[in-house]
Amino acid sequence: MPASPPLQRDNDPQELDRFKQSIDLVDYATRRHGYDVKKAGPRGHWHQLEKDGEMLIVARKGDHQVYLNPGDDRDSGSIIDFVKTRENQTLGQVRQTLRQYLGEPEQGWQAATSPPLPAPAAYAPKPNGPADMESEADRRARLVAAVMGTHASLTDRSYLHNRHLTDETIDSPAFQGRVFTSQQGNFRNTAFPLYNEHGIATVEQRNDEYKHLLQLPKTGVWVSHPTEGRDTPVQRLVVSESPVDAMSYHQLHHRGAEGQPNTLYVATSGTVTERQVELIQKLIDKQEPKEVVLANDNDAAGRRFNIDYLNELQEPRRAREVAEGQVAYDEAPRPVEWHATAAGKYHTALRVEFHHATRAEGTAQLVQLTAQVQQQRPTVDSALTLEVQRASRQETVVRLVVPNADSPALEALARTLHAQREMQREQPERQAHEPGRQPENFIRTEYAISKDYNRDLELLSQGLTREQVAQQARADELAKEQQRQERARQEQEQRQQAQQREAAREQAAQSPETQRREAEQQRQAAALVMAAATGDPALQRVVQLTVMEPTPADEATPSQAQQMRELLHKAGAAVELRAEADPGTGQLRSELNVRYHPHAQPDGLRQLSQTLDALDKSPLVTLTEPAEEQAERRQLASASSAQSVTKTAIIHIDEPEPRAGAAGHAEAVAEQLRDGGLNAGSLRSATDPATHQRHSEIEVSYRLDQPNLARVSTTLDDVARQPGAQVHEHASDRAERHRLAPSGINANVLAERTAGPER
Predict the structure, then answer these.
(1) Is this structure's pTM higher than 0.70?
(2) CB 547 within 8 Å of CB 564
(3) Which of 1, 387, 547, 750 could, after both became Cys, cross-link 561 (CB 3.0–4.6 A)?
């Protein structure tokens, strides 16, 4: 059995690098977040992913993949950034999520309460070739069977009880056969299967402080039975984000209440995928409920889900058979569509698309939308912005952005658009409705008093009244806002401290003593670089070999020492040979002075080191070499395979905002880095409007085997000493480039020898 990877410390940067190198970003995005691959480059060098109108470009950068959202220049980066933004997690939570995704054991409480993910090798042989490749269906069946077992049942209710769900709720006909216990070794979790037309698509496992979705595409939804039992006509369909929220809604609003409609519960287990919306609509088509209730979380994300549901879901569609066993649905026209997304961390955006026959119709619709936005302004102050992104003869696209706290205004606008769209549909395209019920009221929203219905259930279970729950919810929001403000205050304080340090460094840099010292250091560094580039003898190493052998019978026969010289010469060394014969003993004594550069090309150094070590074992040879230089030679030779690795560093530059059109310190540093032999990426800058301080970032890379490594290392060290600049690189990378860059000579001596006569 392969050994488990060692546990990583929470602040270990090498673990983040391992995540980037080990996890396929395309696979993660499609399986965990429902993205679809629309295009792919040759040999898979890049992929175009799409979901709900959002497009991502995933490409390979060095030894890992990165992504870019063309619609939001702030949404880009590695798998770390993808998880942080899509799953709203801190860096520590990202580490836990990706450890679970890779099937690695967690530390502390999580190791004690959560089962390890099933290793594929534990359930099926590893495929050896194309003929043995596991199909997607077989993989799904294997992973689901590992969690659900052969006789799935609910044997442990502790998690559900901890979420304040009663046995009466758990035993409701609605939830029979829809909640199970997953057993893996000594670990138990509560399992919620997600279904589609073909059966179980994936399984969500929950426990206290634990949440995990199988590494399968999220192409199913959790769905209950009707509350009055199987095969009974459904009157209401309730959609929520999690099965626990659905069960909490049932316990709060349905259990024991008179006259409640026969209800079917649906949950998406988090972020909604396009496939899940399709499945919910098919449930509506099949069950034909009289209403759909959107019971998502009472926060900005939950409102975005509801806004999108208003656009996507519709009343039961008319089905018609197009072929034997195949059914198609009549789609209602959509003269207007909308989609909500997160606009950064603190804002919500609504994209509205009008489809029309003439430009005049588009102008009229835009005027009407603007008037509706003006009606919303008293409730959102002046924080709502409207931007016309495209206006053509057949289409008008508008984007609105508000702070998350004002997202109810966008939801109200979406409901107005929904009502107008329903009324615009021609009467023959509508199905007959019950008297008194308008089609635009088929979908309605209900929000919990607090963040979600399970939190409501928790607070009400403590004996609080609804008014007290509302007060506690406001207190929770206030505490959350205070935490956000405190973080902002700390960030501002850190920026001010950085500015003060920069001012102090700049003041110190202006002193004559500092300028003289820096000039001397630059002169010495330049001399060192020149010596390394020209192969200065002072940087070379010398090994002496003494060879005692019988004198060759004739001059045509080469001696052992001469053959050794040829071997060493082919290995890249400069060799001087002196030989002297002893007439009395008939022995030939030869001395070989072997000179080499310790920072020569890696392959040559490895070959030379192997040749020297082999000759040292010969009984004819006595090898004389300082112990430190011998250890250095062997270390460099053994590490040569790693010297082709590309290293990266991030340069941060803080400076006052330059004048319009003028280049600043960051541009000068970028040019210096490129001149110093580094591969420098594009300069990314942002200006703080409050302090007019510009913060810039440059990503650079270099190779440990490039000939001008000494120049690269000197440039990085020089940038690190500049006021306002910081070089962020792994400590081991810095130590390695310092070790490999030519530095084995006293800089003062070298400077004196290369400076020339005084003038």
Answers:
(1) no
(2) yes
(3) 547
